[in-house]
Amino acid sequence: MKQLLVFAFIFLASTASAQAKKEQPKPQIVAAACGQCQFDMKGHGCELAVRIDDKCYFVDGTSIDSHGDAHADDGFCAAIRKAEVVGKIVNNRFEVTSFHLIPEEGKGK
Predict the structure, then answer these.
(1) 88 DSSP β-pair partners
(2) For residue 85, how many other CB atoms are within 10 A of its CB?
């Protein structure tokens, strides 16, 4: 009987673990910039946004200033950059769990 319970516990734990892995979103490459300055979104000041499938979303989970000076020549207010992100769209905003800015070609960062 103990062996049956142990087997059942292991089976259920492995099934739950496999389901959790399936639900994790995959990284995707997106355009990232200041929503107001570069994507012409209505907002209240400079705020990080991403463009996914030609639609723009403000970002929750990281900020525009977490990735360098937004007003530098290559900052989000002056340029649209590429980023690898993981997250999901919730209430017309992008909830990011991972955000990695892709270095510009020739910049060597």
Answers:
(1) 95
(2) 23
